[in-house]
Amino acid sequence: MSLPRQGIFCVEGAWESKLADRSSVLPTLDTLERLRIATYIHRDVGTFEELELYLRKWGQKQYATYEVLYIASHGTPGAIQLGRNTISLEELADCIGRRAAERVIYFGSCGVMADRRAVADFQTSTKAKLVCGYRKTVSWVESAGFDLILLDSLVSGRRIDARVNRIHRRFPDITKVLGFVSHPSFPRGT
């Protein structure tokens, strides 16, 4: 077996207010690690301050191999939600700064990508090589299955345009149903 390719740095907001709720993206990350596809770091975040702390850590040299930042939380067009707080992509870009340069940011959040102008500004501000996620409200099970496919592709080491095009080419129905998009978007022929 080969060693895992790259790492995924995941910050996850609470999905429900009930403390007994155990909804999490951890099973997806565990599967990727058990299959030796990727290693991961996972942190629960409940406040903007916690999110900011972990995003600063993600930018440290010791975490350079964690090229994919996976933000798993509720979302709205152009923003993520942590509890009752809505954090705009502009605020998030200020928090991330240039730590995302040449890295990938994946919003596992409903609707964040629907505000195309905010996403484009976010990508420009952070210098991320790719920002991707959903324009629509997504089903938990459908998006969990897609996360396995997407994260596998994002850590594959190929050119980023080839990775994104592969997803759209091989899984056109689910990308359409989920409203999966990226910025920049790549013509499928590249």
The helix tally amounts to: 7
Report the uncertain regions. Answer: none
The CATH top-level class label? Alpha Beta
Distance between the termini: 31 Å
CATH topology: Rossmann fold
Q: Report the order of strands and helices.
A: EHEHEEEEHEHEHHHE
Radius of gyration: 15 Å
Biggest sheet statistics = 6 strands, mixed
Query: How do the strands line up in the largest sheet?
Result: 2-1-3-7-8-9
Instruction: Name the helicity range.
Output: 25-40%
The total tally of domains equals 1
Can you put this structure into words, describing what you see?
- With 190 residues, this protein is of the alpha/beta class.
- It has a single domain (6-183), classed as Rossmann fold (3-Layer(aba) Sandwich), CATH 3.40.50.1460.
- The protein contains seven helices and nine strands, in the order βαβαββββαβαβαααβ.
- It has helices at residues 26-34, 48-58, 89-96, 116-126, 140-154, 160-170, 172-178, and strands at 6-12, 38-44, 68-72, 74-76, 79-82, 85-88, 104-108, 130-134, 180-183.
- Strands 2-1-3-7-8-9 form a six-stranded mixed sheet, with helices on both faces.
- β5 (79-82) and β6 form a beta hairpin.
- The N and C termini lie far apart (31 Å).
Provide a concise account of the structure shown.
This protein is of the alpha/beta class. The protein contains 7 helices and 9 strands. Helices cover 38% and strands 23% of the residues.
What topology emerges from the helices and strands here?
Elements: E1 6-12, H1 26-34, E2 38-44, H2 48-58, E3 68-72, E4 74-76, E5 79-82, E6 85-88, H3 89-96, E7 104-108, H4 116-126, E8 130-134, H5 140-154, H6 160-170, H7 172-178, E9 180-183
Parallel strand pairs: 1-2, 1-3, 3-7, 7-8
Antiparallel strand pairs: 4-5, 5-6, 8-9
Helix pairs in contact: 1-5, 3-4, 5-6
